[in-house]
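Follow-up to my earlier ticket, as requested here are the two runs.
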Amino acid sequence: MPTLKNPLLLLTTLSLLFTAAIPMADAPRPNVIVIVADDLGWNDVGFHGGDIDTPSLDRLAAEGMELNRFYTTPICSPTRAALMTGRDPMRLGVAYGVILPWDTNGIHPDEHFLPESFLAAGYQTAMVGKWHLGHAQMTYHPNNRGFEHFYGHLHTEVGFYPPFANQGGKDFQRNGVSIDDQGYETFLLADEVSRFIRERDRERPFFIYMPFIAPHTPLDAPQELQDKYRDINTDLAPARARQTDNTRRLSRLMLQDSARPMYAAVVDAMDQAIGQVLATLDSEALADNTIVLFFSDNGGAAYSVGGADNAPLRGGKGETFEGGIRVVSIMRWPGHIPAGEKMTDIMTVMDVFPTLAEAAGVEPRNRRRFDGHSLWPAIADGVAMPRQELVYFASETPIYGHFNLTAFNDEWKLVQEIEQDQLETTVTNYLFRIEDDPNEYNNLAQSHPDVVQALSGMIRDWRALYPINGTRSQIMPPPGWRAPRDWASYPIPLSELQPGPAPGMPPDKTIERILDFQHGDRGRLSYDCTPKWWLGGICLEADSD
């Protein structure tokens, strides 16, 4: 190896090498913004060829990477639970239905939330928008799940204009205190995120969670946007799913106006709000060191009053065909994520927590085992990460006793529709090879009965993990139930709650284990516990690292 005879040159060379190493060790951690739409359709963005103007989302797709096979649950509370925990909603007791105003449940306080890890790593954390993960006790409140700042709504369906309310009870708050901010809800959220960014602590990175209500029903938008889309095409392609297409058919028979024009106006407004946030990042010179992740919480609400379009995908919200669970998703981090490309590996909402943690260099503080895993190598470096294990999703919404289920990986996808009547249960199976048939035209169930049987058994075992008092499709309140006047005052304060979870009716843990065993595949009494079939189905302990 040649030697350097010039001492000055040697010192300069060593200095350059040392300086080059510093950014790797001391590079500032990226800011993170997770933006979630509510019921956005696959075909409702410009970069998918849709007829709604979405220049901000198109910009993110051009400057970032489209996560082309990003999957969520078919309905919103389960997706949000999976996002926050990196875990399967079936384990959490929030899988079949959403958390409704009269429900008292939420996500178990022992579960570790995504913002808690970022907060522990020195991030300032904020949530702006729709929560929908529990409201009856302060243990479930955003300010007790890792968010230093919360501005928004505990519930869904609060409307787009004041008074923002659910079941007649006011639902708009800042950190537990009711507020009366006026304006269009979508734009209010953008204003608050922009304000938080501008007024941030500049010594700390930030993590912002921005879950829109848009474009969820009941739809409403500024008049100029309604006028803009008055003549949009309303003759959408069939969803090829019985429940969704039946609602469209009934709507036409009843001579109801199409929801499509108003839906388009709501999507346009949401895109404008996203554009405002991106402009704030630009003006604050933060865009290059901010990860922006966007996705919809489930497939578009393609039923009659929803107005979404998932074509050419089959089905929509509430269903486990691709249109209900494969959603629009983009991730941007200039200089770290290739621009204008598509990732074709399967990524699920359960993978977001570990993926963002790895990307940002944040240590996940979860005690219970992730069901998701990091896709950062596939996103940043193009490493192939085929999905060998099965992904499972479920929904019972909106029809009680009608279950939509799926299990899939890179090779097979089984969709099951299960109709439970009082005296019989009917199961309809659809089997697809999504890689060859992404739009689910060819049902292979009859030609591959062995695959159907194997996947059906795996779905049954998976469903056996469900806590027996988990969410169901109970879309009406208990008889006579009354809503509060103001939801900000509804959660029971921590000081008025006992220190630990209630034990339930079994007198001790031994009896609980016996009863858990007797329940078999009907569901679990013991929280977060997988039955050990080699021990006769006994559930011994919670699953944790």
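Run two:
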Amino acid sequence: MRWISLIGLLCFAAAAGSAAAEATVLVEAEGFADLGGWVLDQQFMDLMGSPFLLAHGLGEPVKDAVTAVRFTESGEYRVWVRTRDWVGPWKTEQTPPAKRAEGAPGIFQVLLNGTALEATFGAEGAQWHWQPGGSVQVAAGELRLALHDLTGFEGRCDAILFSTDPTLTPPNEAAETAAFRQRLLGHPENPVEAGEYDLVVVGGGIAGTCAALGAGRNGVRVALIQDRPVLGGNNSSDVRVWMGGAIHGPKYPHLGDVVAELDQERREHYGPKNTADIYEDGKKADLVRAEKNIALFLNQRANGVEMAEGRIAAVIAQDVVTGERRRFRGKRFADCTGDACIGVLAGADAETTPSGHMGPCNLWNAANAGKPSPFPRCPWALNLSEKPFPGRDPKDASDSEERLAKLGVWYWESGFYHDPIRDREYMRDWNFRAMYGAWDCLKNTDGQYSSYKLNWSAYISGPRESRRLLGDVVLSKEILLSGESFDDGCVVTGWDIDLHLPDPRYEPGFEGDAFISHALYTKYPRPFHVPYRCFYSRNVPNLFMAGRDISVTHEALGAVRVMRTCGLMGETVGLAAALCRKYDCQPRDVYAAHLDEFKQLLTRGVNPGPEAVAK
């Protein structure tokens, strides 16, 4: 085993005049040397303070996560584990019976040199907290530390703390916890300098990747920051959603060439054939790494901004494995996070639809294992034994395999009436409860699919809507329906106005927490070209945006949120950044002073490379 990089060792003075010293050791779960079957979940770190490990075993206990810890002092150490009972929010007296959870699914042990602590974890506390784990005698030297999953049902561990100080109680308040961890881990107060760039792109989905390629191939020095180990966002092996929308529109037929490069060769929309390899994660990364002007930073969560004179001066990103912070200075920035993370931190004008918005999916499927495959009862999941859901009713399809294909597809969606940022872990976990409840019902209540088992589920959510940044033009449903033409129209749409709301057939009993949606489509005159003025902030002068956080209303988002369209936005922003570099100007100036030249670039497209714009 290699030594874990995130072990901090700090000695505190026990008391004035005392010769003794107290040792405290913090081990961050995301830094374990061998994750085993646990997975790294960074989605909620800005809300609960850290990435964590998730036992995503679909009902089968996962392999132990293991690392090595060295203690410099022998003694009796008290132990705490930062964790939670993830179904705790649905155990209150106010929880309606249909939504109530019983029991605890995500239980695990902590093993020291193969011996379990006296406590088990994950069965108490609805919120993230430090759960006491008892005391243990530790001899100075190496210790083997392991997380031992007992259920396979989404147990989660953030960190493990050891201390010989009998008075120490780790803090739970967010700011105090952050300072406590930074002190123990020995991270410097100031972030490490990561360089200065012409364009800093935050978010490595299709929009961000296209923005980086579009700019980099046209002579722009780019930093591309992505908080996952892969590029592609929803079109990655993490989430597995195919690209929708159109490219190569009639106005600018070469806009979309980069999207076409990123697109996968084959497509399986849903089910067991929708495998990780289809999404060609490696191809996306290789295309970016082949560009000499692009520096790629994976596993970096951008969650801080420095401002100077109303403009963004730098973005601060945190390594999701080591916790190290980096400072990315830039002349211009592109928020391609989907959630407007950078724009909101910078004070950009933004808009959110608080209720009735579209929600996230966690796609899942089941497959024939070729042998009897029992599944445990899940009293903590949604009790669907007397409820309809797609794939259960024989009227859904005459064939059981056809009914099976209705499980875990795009309309298994939740969160319509929850805060799309603050309640994101709640929404993801509600999707889990729906999945496990449906499979428990089919297997144990209805007695179907005896040889089938859960095959795959996305633990990384695929969101549709959250916050939107406002530009000089705010595209609306009314504009789309009018067919208005803009002199800076560039990104062709290829999708109807597609909005999702709870499907009333499946909502009774789950009001406010529906988990099945239906789509409402509205047609409008096409082709329609989204104006460039939707792709930069109206009040933060050096901020671009591309993806589902552009300047649109809730209704208009339904026409532009699909990934090919988002990729066109990225290509457009990349080309605009090239003009900004050429004339040392800001995004608004591209429209105000260089529109004709910008149109020439859009006509030519991205692929010609650095010679497309004279230095």
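The only thing I checked on run two: The first helix runs from residue 45 to 48. Let me know what else you need.
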